[in-house]
Amino acid sequence: MKTMQQLLLLLTAASSAGGIPLSRAPPSNKLLLVSFDGFRWDYDQDVDTPHLDQLGRDGVKAKYITPPMLTMTSPSHFTTVSGRWVEDHEVVHNMMFDAKTNLKVSHRETLTRSEWWDNGVLPLWITAQNQGLKTGSFYFPGGAANYSGQAVNRVVVEDPKPPNETEWRQNIDTVMSWFSDEDFHLVTLYYGEPDRVGHAKGPDHQDRKTIIRQIDRTIGYLREAIARHQLNDSLNVIITSDHGMTTVKKRPQVEELVLNKYLNLLKLASFEILDYGGFGILTPRPGKEQEVFNALSKAPNLTVYKKNELPESFHLAKSERLPPIVVVADLGFNLNSRLIFYVNKGDHGFHNGEMDMKTIFRAFGPDFKKNFVSEPFDSIHIYPLMCKVLQIEPAPHNGSLAVTQNLLHSGGGQRAPRSVCLLLSLLSLLCTFTLL
Ligand SMILES: [Zn+2]
Known about the structure:
Blueprint: H1 2-17, E1 30-36, H2 50-58, E2 60-62, E3 65-66, H3 73-82, H4 86-89, E4 96-98, E5 103-105, H5 107-110, H6 114-117, H7 124-130, E6 135-138, E7 154-156, H8 165-182, E8 186-191, H9 195-201, H10 206-228, E9 235-240, E10 246-247, H11 265-268, E11 269-273, E12 279-284, H12 289-297, E13 302-306, E14 325-329, E15 346-347, E16 361-364, E17 372-374, E18 377-378, H13 382-390, H14 401-404, H15 418-435
Parallel strand pairs: 1-8, 1-9, 2-17, 3-18, 6-7, 6-8
Antiparallel strand pairs: 2-16, 4-5, 9-16, 10-15, 11-12, 12-14, 13-14
Pfam family, one: Phosphodiest
Keywords: Signal
Signal peptide: 1-19
């Protein structure tokens, strides 16, 4: 018995020296990831946003961040939660499609279609769950799918309706109770604004500014709710988005694009997704690839690529799902196929180097620095940062913690790995049991 007491003392001394509490694995801090869809990087600069401004003082603000190519909701969100380029995770459009069967499924319907999302890349929810954490997804794109047969612990599927500030607050209350009453570690929360108003009215419209004020009040409410649930010391929050927004160029200011003027789509293509903003895809009929490429090369205000010649910086060329021809319109141009029936006043999907496609990143909580302005970075580096905050081993990814680690204060995310803590806790329990 004496030997066991000595062992326990030794373990206590050893763990204290390493700064690791012996009795129980220290719980990692919790993480809330919030996405406001289509929040362009500068949307807070022409509107009074006291709560976002306060976040800047209480946490971290990046000047802007760059989404992956392509700058579309599902592909970009899945890069954020997986740290993988679009060519690797293969969520290559908002619409699920099959070029062989001509199947096209709307974005909303894809949300519960695992076959669109689950291509061998594990998103953060599943990786965290596999390491003992409890996770939830509220409306977040990709959260309602199964990955290798595994579902996210708690899922609320998006139910698109007009933006209702009361409901936005209720959603926050729900998520806060997951953290405080049910001990969730990671929750992702999604809002469909300001994307919706950006499309409908354009990024410069007064209604966009009204929604930004609503978002700002919602962030104020979030901070109150965190305090009310006594989560100030344990909950880290990242607020980000998936892409920006630009004004769609219309007649008579510009000549709008109609691709059928340059090639007979019916004759030359067996599959297409056009009329969907600035990003288009086509499958040429057998033997017609060069003809399609040549014809589109003559069209103004767009760039046509053969898939295998896509610039490396797009990280799209390896995709098996993308058809052989990819078209990227110049900023603000819609890729109309045959007729101009496109009604959006604003859109995204353009080159991620365009400033109008850049988006926001804010973070605050116990692990983040205060009053810190970060240089711009690519959204792919959010994933390893989230793993660091949650103290989990990341799945293979294309991000780099070296890019985002400076957002954490010294000691932020520096606790001993979960596995070491668990081992010490087990040893401690064993000693206690033997002494009894
Ligand atoms: Zn979006």
